[in-house]
Amino acid sequence: MQLFIHRQKTKDYSDKRFPDAMIELVESLALHKDKVWSLDDSNGLLATGSTDRCIKIVNLKSSRQVIDELDDTVHKKTIRSVAWRPASCLLAAGSFDSTISIWGKDDSSNDYTSTMADFEMELLAIIEGHENEVKSVAWSYDGTYLASCSRDKSVWIWETDEMGEEYECISVLQEHSQDVKHVVWHPSLHLLASSSYDDTIRIWKEFDDDWEAAAILNGHEGTVWCSDFEKSESSIRLCSGSDDRTVRIWKFAGDSEDDEQEWTCEATLPQVHTRAVYSVAWGPNGLIASTGSDGTLAVYQEVNGVWNVVAKTKQCHGTHEVNVVKWTTVDGVTMLITGGDDGHVNIWKYTNL
Amino acid sequence: MSALLSEEDLNDFISPGLACVRPVETKKTGKDEPTEFEVGKEPSELEKVSISLQDCLACAGCITSSEEILLSRQSHTVFVDAWKNLGDETRLAVSISPQSRISLANYYGMMLDELDLCLANMFKQFFRCKYLVGTQVGRGITISRSNQAIMAARQEPQAVRKPLLSAVCPGFVLYAEKTKPELVPYLLNVKSPQQITGSLLKLSVNEKLYHLAIMPCFDKKLEASRPDGEQEVDCVITPRELVTMFQELGIDLRQYKTQDASLLRSMSPDGWDLTLHWSSNEGSSSGGFAFQYIREMHQLNPQAELLIVEGKNSDVREYRLVDAASDQTLASATELYGFRNIQNMVRKLTQKSAKPRNARLLKNRQTNAAVQKKPEVADLSATDFIEVMACPGGCINGGGLLEGDSTKRKTLVDQLNTRYAQELVPVDPIRMGRHIDTTSVAHNMPYRYQFHPITSRSNDVVSLGNTW
C-alpha cells in the first residue's frame, strides 16, 4: 500500500517505473537431469545443452514436446553451448570435452516442420582443435562462419561449405589473456564479439585474408560472461553482462586510422542484479533481457536514449542460478526462454502493459 | 628483465600451462634415511624446484616454455656473462641467420653488405670474436639431405606414403611432440641449419668454441637445448635481444661502420668459403626447403611443367611438378605457415574428423545438393613434403625480429621479403650441400633429430579456478 501511494505521487513519464510490462511463466519444462547451460531457437525449434551431456530438441510451435534427443555418447563431458545455423536445420554443439559436434537432419530440405513426427538429427562432423573446454559456439548471420572459444584462451573461426560438412580453420585468435566465455556474431555483418575472464570484450573483423582485433572493450570490473549485438541496421551496439553485476551498452563510434575501430561505453543499465550476470539478450523488439546468478530475469527498454527497467521477475528457476536467456517469437507472441541449474527450461510470455 | 622481451610482443611465446608436470622432489639427505616419520617432525624441507629447458622439452604441460625459463638459460645476459668468463682457450664464434641480418639492416637503415661488415667489425673489436659466419652452409646440407630423404620416401608404395613435414621450425616440432604426437611419424628428421652450422663450426677448427647463434625466433633457443644437439649451439639470441644488449653495453653499432671487406674473410674459419656461407638460395624466405626439393625433381624431370598453386590464404603455396603429356603429378611440395594452417593440416593428415561421419546421411544430403566442382587449390594429402613454419609469414616474421616503422605486420613482412630477395646472393644449395657433405667432416655426421612424442597426456588434469 505504501508502495502504491509512493508510485502515485511520483508518477512521471520521464522516470518510468516497472511494472510497465509483464513476464508470465507459460511452462516449465523439466528437460535435463543437470544444469542447463545453453539454448537456442530457430524456426520454432528449441535446442538445449546440459551438464548431463544431452542435447534435446523441443518443438515450440505446438505442444512443446521433445521431438529429438541427440546421441549422448558423442560428447564425453558437459554440453556448454548449442547454436542453430541460420536458415538451415544444422546444429553446432560445443563441449567441455574440447570438441564441437555438428548435427543435421536426415534430408537436406529446409522444410523442418512438415516431418516433425519423425524428426531426427544425426551426427555430421566432429571438429577438433581446442586444447580444452569449449565454452561457446556461434554462427555468422549468413552461416558461412562458425566461431568457437575455449578455456585455452583462444577464439577460432571456421569456414564451412553450403552443406555444413567440411570445416576449415581460417583463424586462431589468441589475444585474450584468460578463458574466453562467449562468442557472438553481429546479425548482419561479419563482426564477432568475444567475452572473457580477462574482463574484456574483443571485437574481431576480417583483414586481408585473416582476422584481426578491431577493438578491445575495457570497463567491466569482472569476468564478462556474455554479450549480444543490437538487431539494428542503423547502428552497431553491443550489450554485455559481467561478474561485476552490471549490464553495459557499447557503441561503435567509427573506424580509426590504424584500421581499428573506436568503441565507447554508452551506458550502464540500471542496477538490478545482486550477483553475476550470466546472460544478456538484445531482442529484435529493441528490448534487452538479462539474467544470472541471483535468479532474476530483467527486461530493459530504451526511451529517448535512457534505459529503464520495464519488467523484473525474481527466482525464475526457484533458488537456482540461471545461465541463459533468449528472446523468441512463437505465433506472434513474444517470449523469453531461460535455462537454469535446476535442469529446467522455462518459457515466459512477455507483454507490454 | 628486459623491457623489450615481454609477453605482449612475442607471437611465438606461450606461457607455461597449468599442467606443468615438473614434480616437487624431496632432497635426499643421506643414505640411511628412515622410512617412517613422525607427523610434524618430517625431515628436510622440500628442495626449491628449478625448471630447466630440458624439463620443459619433456613436459606436455605447455607448448614452449615460460619467458623466465628461456631467459635463465638462453639470453643476452647469459651470453654476456659467459663471454666474460670464456677464459684463454675458448674462442667466441657467432653465426647469424639471413632473416636476422635483413631485419637488423632494416632496423639500422643500412644495406645488407654494410650491416654484415658493421656486425663483423663490432663483434671482432668489442667481443674479440674470432669467427663470424652466415648459416647457408648448414642450410645447404639441410636442403640436400632433406631432398635425398624425401626422394627415398617416394620409393615407398603409394598406399603407405605420407607427406614429410620439415622439422626446421622448432615451434612446430615442439607443438607436434607435445600436443599432436600422432604427427611425429610425419616429421622429417634432418636437422636445421642452426644446428648443422653449429656442429660444423665446432668440428672444423682445433679450438674450443663458444657458439652464439643469432636467430629470428625465440623457439630456436629450445631447439638448441634439445638433448639430441646440445653441444652444437651454446646460446641463441634474437635480433631484438642483440639490440637490447647493445643498449645495455653502450654499443653504437653505426660507429663500427667499415669499408674493410677483408674482415669477413678473416673471420671465416679455414676451409669456409665466405661467398657460400654468407649467401642464400631461391625459394621462400624461411629457407626455401619446399622449392628446392621441387627444383631438384625438376632437374631430374626437365620435360615436366612446374605449377605454383596458391592455397586458400597467402600462407599456403604448393609447388607442383606435372608431366605435360599425361597430366600426372610427378612431385609436389608445399609451404604452410601459421597456426591456423597447421590446424587444418593436422585435421587433413590425421583424418580423425572424418571418422564419425554418417555415410548414409551424407549420401542422402549430397543427392539433394548441387554438385560443385572444387577449384584447383593446394592439396595437402597428395604432397610429398611440407615446409611447415609456426609463424604466419614464416621465419621472416619471427617473433625475435625487430619492428619497423610501419605499424602493420604485413607491410613490414613484405618489405623484408623484398630485401631478402634483392640483397642476399643466391647460390645452388643442393650442389653446395652435396659438395660440403662429401668433402668435409659433415660426411660422418648423421645430423638427425630423435623425436620424442609425449603421449602420456592426461585429459583430466584438475584445473584451477573456475572452468565454466
TrEMBL record, chain A:
Primary site of residence: cytoplasm
Alphabetical list of CDD domains matching this protein: WD40
Keywords: Cytoplasm, Nucleus, Repeat, WD repeat
Placement of WD repeats on the sequence: 72-113, 127-168, 173-205, 217-251, 335-353
Subcellular location: Cytoplasm; Nucleus
GO CC, any one term: nucleus
A family per Pfam: WD40
Example GO biological process: iron-sulfur cluster assembly
Entry keyword annotation includes Ion transport: no
Repeat keyword on record: yes
Functional summary from the UniProt entry: Essential component of the cytosolic iron-sulfur (Fe/S) protein assembly machinery. Required for the maturation of extramitochondrial Fe/S proteins.
Family according to the record: Belongs to the WD repeat CIA1 family.
Subunit note: Interacts with NAR1.
Name of this chain's protein: Probable cytosolic iron-sulfur protein assembly protein 1
Lineage, broadest ranks: Eukaryota, Fungi, Dikarya, Ascomycota, Saccharomycotina
Automatic annotation (TrEMBL), chain B:
GO molecular function: 4 iron, 4 sulfur cluster binding
Ranges in a coiled coil: none
Keyword Iron-sulfur found: yes
Keywords from the named record: 4Fe-4S, Iron, Iron-sulfur, Metal-binding
Tagged with keyword GTP-binding: no
Pfam family, one: Fe_hyd_lg_C
Gene3D superfamilies to which the protein is assigned, alphabetical: 3.30.70.20, 3.40.50.1780, Fe-only Hydrogenase (Larger Subunit), Chain L, domain 3
Domain Iron hydrogenase large subunit C-terminal span(s) in chain numbering: 92-399
Cross-referenced PANTHER family: NITRATE, FORMATE, IRON DEHYDROGENASE
Family: Belongs to the NARF family.
Protein name, per record: Cytosolic Fe-S cluster assembly factor NAR1
Species lineage: Eukaryota, Fungi, Dikarya, Ascomycota, Saccharomycotina
